[in-house]
Amino acid sequence: LSSYKPIEVFGEKWAIVAEIDESEALEVVGSIRTLLVIETIIGAIIAIALVWFVLKRLVSLPVSNLKNLIVQTVDDKDLRIEIEITTNDEIGNIRQAFKTFLSGLRDAIEDLKKSSMENLTISKQLSTVSQDVQQAISKSTNKIDSTTSHVELVK
Asked: Side-chain half-sphere of 137: how many Cα atoms within 13 Å?
């Protein structure tokens, strides 16, 4: 590669010529290109790591916490667990739905307990009535037997 420029020095015309070997001139461009590729790869790795960290923080951890809460509820068989709604996103919506589900389940179990108690009370009442009826039948049977015996004696 060559470059020149005419100049005038003390009334004389001169030319300045600069020459450089092409490989020597482009050597810097090659090293800059290599450096740029390395920096791009490092930047991409950093960007991927940041996206992974953010996704883990925003999605994975809340989902994992909710899963652990559900597992704890099932393992402890404790439907009284309180669920906090800390966000207003999809995870918060799922937490709210699970909270509503547990509340409905608690209400259903409470209704079943009340029904069971009512059934027990009715069963005891029926048992008492049944015993009373059995005693009344037994008395009636005895009276009938007694009357029948007297009738046969009279014949």
From this structure: 6
